[in-house]
Amino acid sequence: LNVRLERHPDFEVEGSDLLYDLALAPWEAALGAKITIPTLEGQVAVRIPAGTAGGKKLRLRGQGLPQKGGRGDLHAEVRIAVPETLSDKERELWEELQATSTWQPRD
């Protein structure tokens, strides 16, 4: 008997924990947001704190795989997503932000 497991479309497995790649818009990361994240039992609402940086991991306790004595956790790693194309208005707004912001990410 050969058993082959396929990769889950949303999660990677690490022991009893699940890993999830969480894409956020730049404004969601900067301003904070309330979003939904998939779990094995359905969607869960999560509050994204203002100022969340790419690479930050959010832990949802008990949302992983069953294990002896409980369940593992779900770890959502933040990835900042940017649009590939911009409308004229979007480009204008990004350029306005660039011109007015004093924040420098490489300082």
Q: Strand order within the widest sheet?
A: 1-2-8-5
How much of the sequence is in beta strands?
A: 35-45%
Task: Give the overall average pLDDT.
Answer: 94
Order of helices and strands: EEHEEEEEEH
Structural class call reads alpha+beta
What Rg is obtained from the alpha carbons, in whole angstroms? 18 Å
Which regions are unreliable across 5 or more consecutive residues at pLDDT < 50? none
What is the total tally of β strands? 8
Helix content: 10-25%
Which sheet architecture does the biggest sheet show?
Answer: 4 strands, mixed
CA-to-CA gap between the ends? 58 Å
Give the helix tally: 2
Shape: elongated
Question: What does it look like?
Answer:
The structure is a single chain. The chain contains 2 helices and 8 strands; from the N terminus they run ββαββββββα. By secondary structure, it is of the alpha+beta class. A hairpin with a 2-residue loop joins β1 (11-14) and β2 (17-24). The model has no long low-confidence stretch (mean pLDDT 94).
Name the descriptors.
38% strand; elongated; 8 strands; two-stranded antiparallel ribbon; 2 helices; alpha+beta; four-stranded mixed beta sheet; 107 residues
Brief digest:
This protein has 107 residues and is an alpha+beta fold.
Q: What is the secondary structure topology, with strand pairs?
A:
Elements: E1 11-14, E2 17-24, H1 26-31, E3 33-39, E4 42-48, E5 57-60, E6 66-67, E7 70-71, E8 74-80, H2 88-100
Parallel strand pairs: 2-8
Antiparallel strand pairs: 1-2, 3-4, 5-8, 6-7
